[in-house]
Amino acid sequence: MDELFDITGKVSVITGGAGILCSEMAKALGKRGSKIAILDLNEEQAKAVAKEIGSQGGTAIAVKTDVLDKSSLEKARDVVLETYGKVDILINGAGGNKKEATTTDTFEFFDIPPEAIQWVFNLNLLGTVLTTQAFGKVMAKQGEGIVINISSMASLRPLTRVIGYSTAKAAINNFTAWMAVHFNLNYSKNIRVNALAPGFFLTNQNRFLLTDEATGEPTERGRQIIAHTPMGRYGVPEDLIGTLIWLVSDASQFVNGIVVPIDGGFAAYSGV
Q: How many domains does the chain have?
């Protein structure tokens, strides 16, 4: 059974790899023998994560990368290939939200500036598309590979306030299915594309919505989310690891084009 989940020697490229969730993914993959490339706009944080992986006996490099800049992505790809010689796993983890694309009691939908919506779409959708173009081309040439996109519970159950983020992540779900079919029909039956849809995890992007900045206590929205989560808590980064290992290993070799919720039962609960 263990060999089904073995990823020893696999090369994993992780965008947004210095963030709260993706750094945990990087460290977990590194502990299991995968060779890691952490791509992030914050080079210092990326280096810190790579150093931590190395201190635990793993192999990792950090590459400063802008997922919205095609030339930056191509340079990062070249560094990865020069260092490791291949790309087995791509995790499209770069993403996020911003206050200006989020409604509040005093900031209406009608007042959201188009550039704020565009910013959220660019980071979450366009960044994923451009990264998949850069690294997916390597997989197409190799004839094998695994792509993991990062969706959100907001894509499955449209949430109040986060109009830009919800719609951008819904587009990720469609892109995941489209790319799974496109790779298989045009390049190789051995390339798979799936997505994780985390429920509510505290990150730098959503903390302003879920916790009071002054007191650190849950906001009303945060309390509503916990009440609607049957398991009664927010997710922690470690909650993503089991599903991730399954999707990037041979254990899921006939799983393709799906979005897996990791949400403590949030999507299943009707509220009564």
A: 1
In a domain, 8, yes or no: yes
Check which CATH number belongs to the domain holding 164 and give it.
Answer: 3.40.50.720
Task: Give pLDDT tens digits for 6-44.
Answer: 999 999 999 999 999 999 999 999 999 999 999 999 999
Four-point Cα dihedral 50, 55, 56, 62, nearest 10: 10
pTM of the model: 0.94
Closest CA to 235 of 186, 199, 189: 199
At residue 269, the 3 state secondary structure works out as coil
The answer to whether 269 is a known catalytic residue is no
Per-residue pLDDT tens over the stretch 216-251: 777 888 889 889 999 998 898 999 999 999 999 999
Provide the token pair at 195.
């997505």
For residue 108, being part of any structural domain is answered with yes
For residue 110, how many other CB atoms are within 10 A of its CB? 6
From 84, 165, 187, 234, the catalytic residue: 165
Domain around 25 = 2-199+235-261
What is the distance between the alpha carbons of residues 223 and 218, in angstroms, rounded to a whole number?
6
In the chain, which residue ranges form alpha helices assigned H by DSSP? 20-31, 43-55, 70-84, 114-121, 127-142, 153-156, 163-186, 207-210, 220-227, 241-248
